[in-house]
Amino acid sequence: MNAQPNPGMQVTTFENPMGIDGFEFVEFAAPAGRAPELHALFKRMGFSAVLKHKTRAITVYRQNGVNLLVNEDPDSFAADFAAKHGPSACGFAIRFSRPVADVEAAVLANGGEAVTHKPDSRALEVPVVKGIGDCMLYLVPRAGDAYAADYAPIPGADPNPKGYGLTFIDHLTHNLHFGNMQQWSDYYEKLFNFREIRYFDIKGAKTGLVSKAMTAPDGIVRIPLNESNDPKSQINEYLDAYHGEGIQHIACFTDDIYATVEAMRAAGVEFLDTPDTYFEVVDLRIPNHGEDVPRLARNKILIDADQETKKRLLLQIFTQNAIGPIFFEIIQRKGNEGFGEGNFQALFESIERDQIKRGVL
Predict the structure, then answer these.
(1) Does pTM top 0.70 for this prediction?
(2) N or C end of the chain: smaller count of CB under 10 Å?
(3) Taking Cα atoms as reference points, which of 215, 221, 219, 209 lies closest to residue 197?
(4) Which domains does the chain have, with CATH numbers?
(5) N- to C-terminal Cα distance for the chain?
(6) Is 289 annotated as a binding residue?
């Protein structure tokens, strides 16, 4: 099941020698006995189980073009990964229009690292190379049904469920040890011709982070890279909890963030809170934005705009940590290719205003 961004979404594309064509799936694992937590989470988020592996304990959850795999196979790479990291994202897949055997050969020639774990331990029998934190980066063919050989439809399941309106994976953010950002940006650039499209340095009251957003030539596969030199930063807290580098969050696109978030809240998904003071200055930050501010405030949805015109909007919200230290982002783009950079500073300032009101500052 493949889904493309809506026609109104603006993306920047460039030379695409590998034929990259979107994310296909993210694979998750959990220590023995904890996989039910993953199944329950994905159902709360509006996903439906649509496929089961024919011989192994792997389930494909789907919502339009977003595929999430739960791998419970005890004799697998996923099980070994979960033993080290706890509940985790043990792999992700990128689609290619070129034959994946050719892609694999080119990737390895460009410096990609092969995965040495036994081949039959992967969730899909396609080429793989090492991804962030030694997870599996699957190279999946765009043409045909990549799941057909190894997976069977679940009886009675809708093969293309609409769920709560998530349509495709917008980006996967990586958390890195301090000093490794250049290594990983070079890795994606050499392997797939990724390019840096954003760089920002966020400073809060006590900690901060640096983020470099890399994007693939198709303009859809985006991988922001985060690092921090502060041992108490949120990045290093993740690294400690996860026992290494990895996927920090999975951002999923929706055409109607209000309806998606309201449905998820009703199902029990927990989101990060946002101070009321944030919404008091939305009209000052972004004049004539046209959004329903009371509804934004009720749902704690953040809004950002490009600095040049203030017309290209982005709406976003983050779940609380959902899989170990990993969380999800729900995002709607209205012509904005960024990552909500403006919200970092706005949130910081709104929290300070709240502190002033309460007499803390």
Answers:
(1) yes
(2) C
(3) 215
(4) 20-153 (3.10.180.10), 166-358 (3.10.180.10)
(5) 52
(6) no
